[in-house]
Design brief:
The protein has 2 domains: 10-228, no CATH class; 260-439, no CATH class. The chain has helices spanning 10-42, 45-81, 85-120, 125-140, 142-157, 162-185, 190-215, 230-261, 266-302, 306-340, 348-361, 366-380, 384-409, 412-439. Helix content is 85%, strand content 0%. By secondary structure, the chain is mostly helical.
Length: 440
């Protein structure tokens, strides 16, 4: 169902768009955790270690795909809001055709590069073979991953965030059931886990594309329209490449922070791993609200409705602040039982570390709410380089402060360092926002 955000109630549109994004992201996190549980319980710790080892490589591939698709989605939102269906179709065709070719080449190159890459990462020999087999099958499914992300981005660009959620849920549940049957009952190995993942991705891509052809006329492409527009491709690569680089900064920064935390001992490492998972759940809704701001701003800028752009940004920031206050209260109230979900009651020291950390961090969740909202605004304005710069500033300051604070005050230093990174990011971006608004 398309949603033209250039008219109608702004707050209702932002909420109706953001909620499916929130649910989809939370569902994906939960599913990934359950998938790891199935592998660990029915195949064994070697298989679980192999999946965990393959994770960073898979994430880098997915970051590249999602970055390109985000850039394309912003452009399609501009065309949709500006009532330019011919350019919308040209952009969609360009992304689909070039993306499939790129993912096929990446899959082929990855097939041969897996071995040397795993040796470079110093993967233990006893899991080298199964990790390589798992990764090669996952890489073979890259074209399906791209098609689903591209189709989802096209639907989101025209205001439909509900349909991609439905297909994601159906196919993820199917993947889980296949894992339970073939791994839990028939005791197939890690190769089966990779095959079921690729099968689910293929089905999600097929369902999404069939839905577009049957229900969304504005996205229906004829065979003759599947051509690459070089100018649009260059613009998409510019926006998408910067976005992919921006997304890659976060895991790199987390790895550097993890290195500092690792010096504090096993209890702190365990507490930090649980904290990171809870942080992911806490911050995802803020990112989803930012996604709704991006689409709203892009559609209305494409339609030339500057006043509505500013009203939508203001309403989106109110949603971000409201959620930031809500998650602050929730974390303060439930931080001990939530930490208890990740460790047994016997590990009271770990629960205590996490509880004290969240007693501080809860008050800082308002800052990423603000930074995500501003990033969503600038992304909708096609100012991807600015969002990359803001992320680099935030990560750089956070890593620097972690290296200074953690050796002195322990794990709580990560919370203060995070707040410092977000504050410096706001000090850089907020004045620029008012500067650009004054110019307009």
């Amino acid at each position: 169902m398309t949603q033209n955000m250039t008219e109608g109630n702004i707050s209702r549109q932002l909420l109706s768009y953001a909620v499916p994004l929130v649910l989809g992201n939370l569902f994906q996190l939960t599913y990934n955790a359950i998938d790891s549980m199935i592998v660990g319980n029915f195949i064994g710790k070697r298989a679980l270690a192999a999946v965990g080892t393959a994770g960073p490589v898979m994430n880098m591939m997915i970051l590249g795909i999602s970055g390109i698709c985000i850039g394309a989605s912003v452009m399609m939102s501009h065309f949709f809001g500006g009532n330019k269906p011919e350019f919308l179709k040209k952009e969609m065709a360009t992304v689909m055709v070039s993306g499939v070719w790129f993912s096929l080449l990446a899959a082929a190159a990855g097939f041969f590069a897996v071995g040397p890459l795993l040796r470079l990462l110093q993967v233990p020999r006893n899991i080298m073979d199964i990790t390589a087999a798992y990764l090669r099958i996952i890489l073979a499914g890259l074209p399906f991953t791209f098609l689903f992300n591209a189709a989802s981005s096209a639907l989101k660009a025209i205001g439909d965030s509900k349909t991609p959620l439905k297909f994601l849920i159906v196919c993820s549940v199917l993947n889980g059931l296949l894992d339970l049957v073939f791994i839990g009952i028939f005791h197939f190995g890690i190769v089966c886990s990779a095959v079921t993942t690729v099968a689910a991705e293929a089905l999600s891509a097929i369902f999404c594309i069939l839905y577009m052809y049957r229900r969304v006329p504005v996205l229906q492409l004829r065979a003759s329209e599947f051509r690459v527009d070089r100018q649009l491709l260059w613009q998409t690569l510019q926006y998408g490449g910067v976005t992919a680089l921006q997304q890659a900064c976060q895991p790199v920064g987390k790895l550097m922070i993890q290195g500092t935390v690792n010096s504090l001992g096993v209890d702190v490492i365990a507490a930090f791993n649980a904290i990171s998972r809870i942080d992911d759940y806490a911050c995802l809704p803020e990112q989803s609200i930012a996604g709704s701001i991006t689409t709203f701003v892009a559609q209305n800028e494409g339609a030339g409705r500057e006043e509505r752009v500013q009203k939508g940004f203001g309403a989106g920031m109110l949603l971000e602040v409201g959620y930031g206050l809500l998650i602050c209260c929730a974390i303060l109230l439930f931080r001990r039982p939530v930490m208890g979900l990740f460790v047994s009651g016997e590990d009271s020291a770990i629960i205590g570390l996490g509880s004290r950390y969240f007693g501080i961090m809860a008050f800082f969740y308002i800052f990423p709410a603000l930074t995500n909202g501003i990033q969503g605004y600038f992304r909708g304005r096609k100012q991807m380089k600015l969002t990359l710069l803001g992320t680099l500033i935030q990560i750089g300051v956070r890593v620097l402060l972690v290296s200074v604070l953690v050796p002195v005050i322990g794990l709580n230093g990560v919370a203060f360092a995070s707040a410092g990174g977000w504050l410096v990011m706001l000090l850089a971006e907020v004045p620029y926002y008012f500067y650009t608004r004054k110019r307009k």
